[in-house]
From TrEMBL:
<dbReference type="InterPro" id="IPR003708">
    <property type="entry name" value="SecB"/>
</dbReference>
<dbReference type="Pfam" id="PF02556">
    <property type="entry name" value="SecB"/>
</dbReference>
<dbReference type="GO" id="GO:0015031">
    <property type="term" value="P:protein transport"/>
</dbReference>
<dbReference type="GO" id="GO:0051082">
    <property type="term" value="F:unfolded protein binding"/>
</dbReference>
<feature type="compositionally biased region" description="Basic and acidic residues">
    <location>
        <begin position="153"/>
        <end position="163"/>
    </location>
</feature>
<dbReference type="InterPro" id="IPR035958">
    <property type="entry name" value="SecB-like_sf"/>
</dbReference>
<comment type="similarity">
    <text>Belongs to the SecB family.</text>
</comment>
<protein>
    <submittedName>
        <fullName>Preprotein translocase subunit SecB</fullName>
    </submittedName>
</protein>
<feature type="region of interest" description="Disordered">
    <location>
        <begin position="144"/>
        <end position="163"/>
    </location>
</feature>
<dbReference type="GO" id="GO:0051262">
    <property type="term" value="P:protein tetramerization"/>
</dbReference>
Amino acid sequence: MKSILSFDNYEVIETSYRFNPGFKSVGEEQIIPDFTLKIVYANKKKEQAILDLGLEMGDFELKKNSFYVKARIIGNFSLEHDDALDDRARASFFKANAAAILFPYMRSLVSDLTSKGSSSSVLVLPTMNIVRFLQENQGIQEVLLDDGDSEAEEKKSSEETKE
């Protein structure tokens, strides 16, 4: 059975890793990742989209934590045309399925990035329901690329995400 959602490719847009070997921690560091997801639709039909998945963890100044990681990847996705799908259904494919497809690439990137540092510990992000995490933390933003009023579309989308 063939899926109507196609994962065309992905690219690493940004990586940053900082480590303070002299940091003295009390116990194990508990750091919650901060994820963002921006979905940029190519047009009103929402049959093509670029997903921009971001992650930030730790303390940039390295005063509260021993490390800081920032990463951003984008994935290009497309949906086969299907008259049975309305705009909400198409958007749902990108929000849920495409984000879930992209997340393992972020996990791998973060592990690879932190393995290159001088730290003895490699950061391995846990498997998680990334979509639920983003929804609970209002981390999904949607933008319509070819609309004259993309700001209004972006606001509307952000409000729908909060519901």
